[in-house]
């Protein structure tokens, strides 16, 4: 009878070699994938569902995400930014998903209100309402390092292509949310600089700003806000950064911004037609130039006590003097603007605390303001002195399950009143 033991040993040896080769190849592939997508994998793994949707009350879900690495934003600026949403999408797709997954940026029609005030203890607050409609949002935490600031920002996931009527489910949708750092609508960085973006409804049919100075790089609206959060140490530095770029507003609409810092300095930055040119003559938004209105501007002397903290507010209408040819009070958001300023004037710009600031935001929430209509998706009070966040979803003021706090000192996002 033939001895089969040597043959079995040979086949066993071959099988072990084959298995070893497979393990080595799998390990090599794993290492390669981690080297290429390690930050992205960790970021997607951090995507967390914080609060469920309530369709009966027009409430989307709330998520959080801790973004690992620098998400290629340095490279974005180094290449000269982008002069359109299409260019931005192409950059994100090629760098974050390596061309494997298409991404998108959607149009929005947003309201919003903000103001800067001081507390009785001397802390500087930046209050912000984001008015839109039912949508999913993501509390987005970044800490890219390499000279860039850590930040907390709120991202409307509709803006990166997520359906407003369904939850963000499935790996592909979560991967698409990797574009979130490029689409912040408001936020604060660890230097105590805060910024918000507000639709300004400019032009006869809402023409987007589309600056065309050949000597300057280009940037889109939400990536301008990201640049401020990542690189600005204060308001003046933020304005300097902005002034180096041609603004190309995203989503085929116009925006203006408000920026504030821990010193109590704030500024509203707007792009308005050059002198002698009306909105009706600026058919492509290329004739607009940057105008900066600081909170100590003389224009406020007539409406604000000289002893008051230099509070400042913004909604949706342009505050640059002389912009409107007709009645200023007909400008979009003027009613909310006058209400916020009147409340701040009563206390000379000094509110008791973060809750008092939140109360002002609640008063102009879209569900109840002027009889209702629309939704305030979130309200945030950023304490620029303490570098903390007090954030409420969908006007659920006083509801611990809809309230979050964040502190740069602890790095913790916590739920509760």
Task: Describe the structure in your own words.
This protein is an alpha+beta fold and 417 residues long. The relative contact order is 0.14. It contains 8 helices and 19 strands. It has a single domain, classed as Penicillin V Acylase, Chain A, CATH 3.60.60.10. The longest helix has 42 residues, at 5-46. It has helices at 5-46, 73-78, 85-96, 171-176, 221-231, 235-243, 334-346, 354-363; strands at residues 48-51, 62-67, 113-119, 124-132, 137-142, 151-156, 186-189, 194-199, 217-220, 245-248, 255-260, 266-273, 288-294, 312-314, 350-351, 375-383, 388-393, 403-407, 412-415.
Would you state the CATH class?
Alpha Beta
Helix content: 25-40%
Number of helical elements: 8
Count of all domains: 1
Could you give the count of β-strands? Answer: 19
- Radius of gyration from the CA trace? 25 Å
What string gives the helices and strands in order? HEEHHEEEEHEEEHHEEEEEHEHEEEE
Instruction: Tell the overall outline.
Output: globular
List keywords for this structure.
417 residues, alpha+beta, nine-stranded mixed beta sheet, eight-stranded mixed beta sheet, globular
């Amino acid at each position: 009878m033939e001895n089969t033991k040597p043959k079995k040993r040979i086949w066993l040896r071959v099988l072990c070699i084959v298995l070893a080769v497979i393990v080595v190849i799998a390990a090599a592939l794993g290492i390669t994938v981690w080297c290429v997508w390690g930050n992205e994998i960790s970021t997607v793994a951090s995507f967390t569902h914080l609060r469920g949707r309530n369709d009966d009350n027009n409430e989307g879900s709330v998520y959080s995400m801790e973004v690992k690495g620098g998400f290629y934003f340095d490279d974005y600026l180094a290449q000269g930014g982008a002069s359109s949403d299409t260019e931005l999408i192409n950059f994100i797709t090629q760098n974050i998903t390596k061309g494997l997954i298409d991404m998108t940026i959607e149009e929005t029609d947003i309201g919003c209100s903000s103001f800067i005030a001081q507390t009785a203890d001397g802390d500087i607050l930046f209050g912000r309402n984001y008015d839109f409609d039912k949508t999913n949002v993501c509390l987005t935490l970044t800490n890219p390092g390499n000279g860039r600031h850590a930040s907390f920002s709120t991202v409307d996931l509709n803006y990166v292509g997520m359906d407003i009527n369904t939850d963000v489910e499935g790996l592909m949708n979560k991967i698409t949310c990797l574009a979130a750092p490029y689409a912040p609508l408001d936020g604060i960085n660890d230097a105590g600089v805060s910024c918000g973006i507000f639709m300004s409804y400019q032009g006869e049919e809402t023409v987007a700003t589309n600056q065309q100075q050949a000597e300057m790089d280009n940037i889109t609206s939400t990536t301008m806000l990201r640049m401020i959060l990542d690189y600005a140490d204060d308001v003046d530095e933020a304005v300097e950064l902005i002034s180096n770029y041609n603004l190309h507003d995203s989503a085929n609409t116009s925006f203006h911004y408000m920026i504030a810092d821990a010193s109590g300095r704030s500024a509203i930055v707007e792009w308005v037609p050059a002198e002698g040119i009306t909105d009706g003559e600026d058919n492509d938004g290329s004739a607009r130039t940057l105008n900066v209105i600081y909170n100590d501007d003389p224009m406020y002397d007539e409406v604000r006590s000289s002893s008051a903290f230099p509070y400042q507010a913004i909604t949706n209408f342009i505050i640059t003097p002389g912009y409107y040819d007709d009645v200023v009070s007909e400008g979009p958001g003027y009613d909310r603007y006058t209400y916020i300023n009147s409340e701040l004037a009563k206390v000379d710009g000094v509110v008791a605390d973060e809750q008092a600031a939140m109360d002002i935001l609640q008063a102009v929430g879209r569900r109840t303001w002027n009889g209702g209509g629309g939704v305030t998706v979130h309200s945030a009070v950023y304490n620029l002195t303490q570098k903390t966040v007090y954030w409420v979803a969908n006007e659920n003021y006083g509801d611990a399950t809809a309230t979050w706090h964040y502190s740069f000192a602890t790095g913790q996002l916590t739920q509760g009143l």
